[in-house]
Amino acid sequence: MGEAIAVLSGKGGTGKTSITAALATALAKEGKRVLCVDCDVGLRNLDIPLGLSDTAALSFVDICEGGYSLDQLTAHPQFETLYFLTAPMNRSAEEIDADAFGGMVLSAREKFDYIFLDAPAGVDAGFRLAAAKADRVLLVTGSDPAAVRDAGRTGQVLELMGKENVRLIVNRINPKLVSNMALTVDDVMDNAGLPLIGIVPEDPNVTLAAAFGKPLLTYTKKGAAAACRRIATRLQGMPVKIEL
Predict the structure, then answer these.
(1) DSSP output for 20-31
(2) Residue 139 belongs to domain with CATH number
C-alpha cells in the first residue's frame, strides 16, 4: 500500500510546487511508482516544474467522477514510473466532492508507492482537501519571519485537523543572508514548532529549468536538486545528513 503525501505551505511563494515536482522525480528515478496530483483548483501549475506544460493530462475530477480510471494515465515521457493528474479549471475547490477525492486517493495508494498532493497555499478548501486525505504532510516554508510565522499557524491548523505526521522543509535558504540575520535552521524549527525533514538552498536553476520546460533533476545535479534528492531519501526512511 502506497503513501499519500500532502505538500502544503502557509503562504504563497515558498516554492512548494517546485519541491513537489523535484521530490516526485527523485523517487521516480529510483524506480518508485509515483503519482503527482495538482490540487490547486483553478490555478494549476504543477505541470511546469514537472516538464509537462505541453502535455495533455487528465484532471483528478475526471477520475473522481468515474469518466476515466487510474489505469488510463499516461506516463511521464522521461520517467516511466511517474504519472500526473492536473487540477480542474472549471470548478472551485468548494465544489469538489471530498468523499470522491478520498476514494481516488485510496485507489491510488493501491497502485502507486507515493502520491503527492500539491495543495494551494493558505488554509482554505483546497488545502483541507489535500491535508485530510494525506498519510504524511510536508510543510514548505522560507526562512523569513513572515513565512515562518505562517508555517507555525499552518502547523496549528493541521494539529486541529488531527494530522500528526507533519515535517518541515525550509526552502530558498540564502546561507549568507541567514548568517547576517543570526538565524539558524534550529530557530526556524523552534518558531514553526515542527520537526525538520530537509533544507533547500536558493537556486536559480529552479527557475531556469522551468523556463526551459525541464524537470529540475534533469537540468542539474547540484543545489536544490541535490537537496531534494536527500529529502526523497529521508522519505523512504533512510538517514541522510541535513545540509545545504
Answers:
(1) HHHHHHHHHHTT
(2) 3.40.50.300
Residue 243 inside a domain? The answer is no
Ramachandran angles phi, psi of 202, nearest 5° = -60, 130
Residue 181 has pLDDT above 50, yes or no: no
Number of structural domains (the chain) is: 1
Please tell me the distance from the alpha carbon of residue 180 to that of residue 162, in angstroms, as a whole number: 37
Helix, strand, coil percentages, rounded to 5, for the chain: 40, 15, 40
In a domain, 207, yes or no: yes
* Share above pLDDT 70 across residues of the chain, in percent, rounded to a whole number: 92
Burial (CB < 10 A; 0-12, 13-18, 19+), residue 164, is exposed
pLDDT 10s digits, 35-61: 999 999 877 899 999 999 988 899 999
Strand order in the sheet with 136-141: 82-85, 34-38, 114-118, 3-8, 136-141, 166-173, 196-201
pTM of the model: 0.93
Whether 244 maps to a domain, the answer reads no
CA distances from 82 to 3, 26, 47, 58 (A): 15, 10, 12, 14
Alpha-carbon radius of gyration of the chain = 17
Residues of the domain holding 45: 3-235
Statement: residue 95 has pLDDT above 60:
yes
- Pairing of β 114-118 and β 82-85: unpaired
240 domain residue, yes or no: no
Helix 16-29 vs helix 224-235: angle between axes, to the nearest 10 degrees? 70
CA distances from 156 to 124, 149, 151, 164, 166 (A): 14, 11, 9, 11, 11
Q: Which of helix, strand or coil describes residue 185?
A: helix
Asked if 39 and 16 count as a contact pair (C-beta separation under 8 A), the reply is no
